[in-house]
């Protein structure tokens, strides 16, 4: 949070505000820049002219007066700023010099001062739409930053207030009342060097949000091994509970690869379910019509193939939902005297990227053709359509690398009849995708052990189960007690947001420590 | 579920299968159709030739033999079927005659027989990608349907089996083992008239899924009144609990308008929270970092403007989530000796459609420009980007009616600084949208009464609250007991899928009763 924190600079602001806002600069003020409102006309000290005192130039009569000064108590090298028609161009005295160009409207809207971003709630106190389109700086000053990671801060005094919308037209007026002088004439914003460098640069914003820790890495089975052959997938539940670094490792494994296994999770079947604790360690349980937690055991007259001892083909869960749950947890409570029943996981994201490389047309068909999924059984009627491959609409279709894929929707057992108008080429495209998913190099097969909790990303990783024998199956299971069950998984779903939240908070904490 | 149910026709299938699969039709079989494999060549009896017996025509030598017959015990009018290169064209003897054309591959893939769709789990037992692209009918027969809503069923015997993928390459083989003869030579599919008419027609599929009960109706405040001036929004909680028709009414009000109020919900503040029961009546609680249920009361050092007595501008909750929760519930537990605090709701979907009509360029900018939202406070770091208007990518941009809008993302208090590269025109577009949202005719303002639960669609309806005075606010609230609180809302979030599920199930049930 410190990146946004700009402490209250009121005393200094008052000191600076004593400077008369005119073209005639008092001699008591040590100018480090010059004046200009002309588009493209460079003004201010260059990095090599760090203490360059220059006289105010004549202003273009069309533009506002700008008073550009440093604070009076420092003369060390500071960045320079050039005013253009609608932007400020700032050059940092680094080697090589780094320049950024920032629109006035963007700067005013993003003002991080305590009157614009509430110091306690961190909520923004004006609307982007309250900023006049033609707002301009009236005075620029380089001041010493109070942000410990930055030396200088750019103070901008604005030429006009924000728009206010009275209660009669909006029904809401409060933020202006709450924020005091927001919207007042001559609002002063301060932007530290670090703030400017972060928010002007997409890659730094992503770094700040730790996007790389959250990004999906497509995998084949071989990619799940560390150097030396050890699997990346397994984490000790004990360790993850007591060591935040281990927890962060497991969470990042999950977000990056969409698959991780926690080992030695207590399998007690009386009292509270340990799985709920695991879910709360990662996120929050997302309850569905299957309940908050549910059981995978073979049953007579099963309402789901999962609840039999049959083979269960590669699929995803709950695609008949608008937003299928992101992560699925399966806790192996019992697996004894059973033959078969291996779990299989395939990264459908990797398969989709492979398809993109091998058959662009098939990829595009899967990204644009609706497939329906439904669950109409047992007192429920759920139905939803999805594209098989969900491509981020911001992706550039002409790019030479695969577009950003946000989710895969592939679950043959829950498919509804396709729209009868489905183009014939779609069937061929789906066959190619299915063939890619079948490639042995993509498949990670594993027999769950009692105490394992496998966690996987239900929006990208397909799961399957081989048939088994020896589990309490069919009618014979009906009379059995829980403890007598030979094969029993307990499952639940959790959402992605809390996982990302924990990764960012732990990431920041562990970097700092 | 009855629409999909095709009962086991094994005895009849066996009877029909005694017909030799050759071009020479035995005289003992009463033919109601003729043979052809030629594209576009109409075959079979026309509707006006209901019992028309015709001799087999000579088959084009390139195509497979087709045996097209009725079952032997009926001669009443049945639909006709024409075989084309890759499709069957079926004409129903209605007035005017209704024709549909269905691809072979689609028909085979969609076979609803108990070997293709498991009778108990209702899950599909093969993959669309298992159907050979060039599969064709070998024999067509009109038989009496066992579906009570249909007279005839088309039986198709297929010329080749489904593909099988052995365990070595897929790791999954089971569904074939489970399903018996799926994939075998000469699989027979039966499609009742009703099944054919439903699944060949998008509008009927939508009707089956009760899309109109779920569709979003854009509104202005005046549209919330029934004829005669009574508001559509209010439902008695008592009635909704005991009368399924009232419950269905409230649920449809919610899905159609995104806003409803349940009245006289018990406000007991000891023991269990009634709000949890309300949430479970509609759906399931979606827990977030605010907890399963949370309180809106004014607090000292609030971490959220909601927890103050300040005005709270129009916004949506949790847009820093990947999938913000769909519905929000707010239960007014206490509201006494308080001035102000009215709730305001605006349909942002209506505003977006208005913008589409008035300024297409602004609409398109809002549909394509990323806006970041974040919550970086209080031990959390959540961040996400969304488009302000989310347009269904299947929408036709050249259509003369507004595209399908799946969600609006508008929440100024939680905005992060925009990307600095945001085009200047976006600011103008956002101002137009904000101005549209401010129009008084769109605003429904209401002072929550104790016992009210307002439920609204957080993905389309904005909410706001006027400032109030007299609630236990600031530091003075800290020492107060719950019962002494003057203004207290309890809230929670629920997802959309269970709401749609309940609407469909109740809709089917109440239509049948």
UniProtKB/TrEMBL annotation, chains A, B:
GO terms for cellular component: mitochondrion. One of its GO terms (molecular function) is metal ion binding. Residues 88-143 form the Gamma-butyrobetaine hydroxylase-like N-terminal domain. Its cofactor is Fe(2+). One of its GO terms (biological process) is carnitine biosynthetic process. Belongs to the gamma-BBH/TMLD family. Keywords: Dioxygenase, Iron, Metal-binding, Oxidoreductase. SUPFAM superfamilies: Clavaminate synthase-like. Residues 235-493 form the TauD/TfdA-like domain. It holds the Pfam family GBBH-like_N. It comes from Tulasnella calospora MUT 4182. This is TauD/TfdA-like domain-containing protein. InterPro entries: AlphaKG_dependent_hydroxylases (IPR050411), GBBH-like_N (IPR010376), GBBH-like_N_sf (IPR038492), TauD-like_sf (IPR042098), TauD/TfdA-like (IPR003819).
